[in-house]
Amino acid sequence: MDAKDILGLPKNALPIQEKKSKPPKESQRKPDGISREVYALTGGLAPLMPAVDVNQLKRKAQSDNEKITWQWLPFTNSARKDSLQLYHWVRVVNGIPPTGDYSFAKYNKSVDVLKYTDEEYEKYLTDPAWTKEETDQLFDLCERFDLRFIVVADRFPSSKTVEELKDRYYSVSRAILIARALSPGDVATHPLVKETYNASQETERKRALNLLLSHTKQQERKDVEVLAQAKKISEARKASKASEESELPVLSDIGSLGADKATADTVNPSTNSQIPSSSITAPVSETASVIASLRMLRVYLRSYALEQMVQAASSSAGLRTIKRVEQTLQDLGVNLKPKVPTKAVCAEHLELRKEILTLLNLQKQLQYKEAEGSSFREGSYTETPGTPPKQQSLRAADLDRTFTPDSLSIGGERFGKREQKRKGPAPSSPAQSKRPRKYKASD
After folding, report:
1. How far is residue 160's CA from residue 162's CA, in Å, rounded to a whole number?
2. How far apart are CA 259 and CA 361, in angstroms?
3. In Å, what is the CA distance from 361 to each residue of 261, 308, 333, 401, 431?
4. Nearest one of 279, 311, 313, 254 to 399, comparing CA atoms
5. Which of 361, 349, 351, 369 is closest to 324 using CA atoms?
6. Which residues of 402-434 are buried (b: 16+ CB within 10 A; e: fewer)?
7. Nearest to 264 by CA among 272, 256, 255, 254
8. Residue 396 contacts residue 276 (beta carbons within 8 Å)
């Protein structure tokens, strides 16, 4: 018995699915000339590019009428001027030796050294440090050894350095070219005229290179340690500078601060004592730090400098004031960032922002004065002992909000209760007396 007999299931409950036979793969015969391993890797596919030229693998079969022999024959080299005759093995076909110049003569390259006459030397090439005989010998050696100045200095009779020999040769060649040219512009693009040789710079370069190559292993390790320490110091300074910039508030510009201060002094001299001076002026050191930070960069975009100066000019204002400045610029059809930030455009853009900021400050002062005047026109009332005193100073953060003086609220008792709910329980005070009744003229 099995599980199907126990459960009472038929033995052939599920139809047996016949396995589909896969079609046999077509066996491909390995082509001739390919090894079994290569055929297994490539699958018999031809390579994209032939690795070896087929013509190099199979030479054409020699014709029956060609007879090739190798003969020991003499030859001359056109690169030599002494007509020296040497011998070498040559492939000869049908007894006819090859003709033409020596195959390696084409690699003989010589430098064209300028020649000068006695008149040109006396007129253009005189030098108190060099005689004519020394100059002639220098040019002969340069032509002989193809400007290999190390060999020329070794063969030169007097004790002249390589740099002095180079300087004399290139200066004479440049003077000859300029003297023979019809106009200086004809030889302005010549390498000897365009790129002058600097003997002092070459001497200093070789001295520095000699000093570097003469360092010992200990000095090299010490230099590596010094460079690593200098890198750590520079990274630490950059990190400290970044942290300081993140902690400090947005830097302000001295021009906008001066304008704001002058406006505040002229428009509202009586209320300057009530507004904290920190909301109007900022330390001059912040402006100096902006200039110093730009100087430390040495190379910076004028758009980046404009952004920094805009932030500095708007540092004394709140977020809402900055948004009002940007909204005013958009109303005037002025881009927030100039498309062509030239020096003049950036200066005018900053001046416009300062004027808009000054206008907004004047509007705030005007609203403050109008609210103060309306509070006195509404009428006067006696303050009870329990009434909290009026706020005599404004916070810097309140400048961005629409001004609402304390005296505009009607009903001192209700205003005092609201303030008590916000600020906490008020101190106990005696019973408040009713406000005295106003009498008319008829009474």
Report:
1. 7
2. 10
3. 10, 22, 22, 12, 43
4. 279
5. 361
6. ebebebeeeebeebbeeeeeeeeeeeeeeeeee
7. 272
8. yes
Spell out the residues 6+ positions from residue 170 whose beta carbon is closer than 8 angstroms to its own.
192, 196, 197
How far apart are the C-alpha atoms of 426 and 419, rounded to whole Å? 9
The whole-angstrom separation of Cα 266 and Cα 262 is 6
The pLDDT tens digits along the chain (443 residues) read 577 777 777 776 555 555 666 666 666 777 777 788 877 777 666 666 666 666 666 666 666 678 889 999 999 888 888 889 999 999 998 888 888 888 888 888 888 899 999 999 999 999 999 999 999 999 999 999 999 999 999 999 888 999 999 999 999 999 999 999 888 888 888 888 888 899 999 999 999 999 888 989 999 899 899 999 999 999 888 888 887 776 554 444 434 444 444 444 444 444 443 444 444 444 344 555 666 677 677 677 777 777 777 777 777 777 888 888 888 888 888 888 888 888 888 888 888 888 888 898 898 899 888 888 888 887 655 444 555 554 444 444 444 444 444 444 444 444 444 444 454 554 444 444 455 555 555 54
Q: In whole angstroms, what is the distance from residue 65 CA to residue 93 CA? A: 10
Domain ranges of the chain: 68-99, 118-205, 251-376+397-406
**R_g over Cα of the chain:** 49
What does the block give as tokens for 182? 């019809």
Burial 251-288 (b: 16+ CB within 10 A, else e): bbbbebbebbbebbeebbeeeeeebeeebbbbeeebbe
What's the CA gap between 247 and 60, in Å, rounded?
Answer: 85
Give CA 429 to chain center in angstroms: 70
Amino acid at 238: K
Q: Which class is 118-205 in CATH?
A: mainly alpha
With contact defined as beta carbons under 8 Å apart, do 215 and 223 qualify?
yes
Q: Which residues contact 179 (CB under 8 A, 6 or more apart)?
A: 120, 123, 124
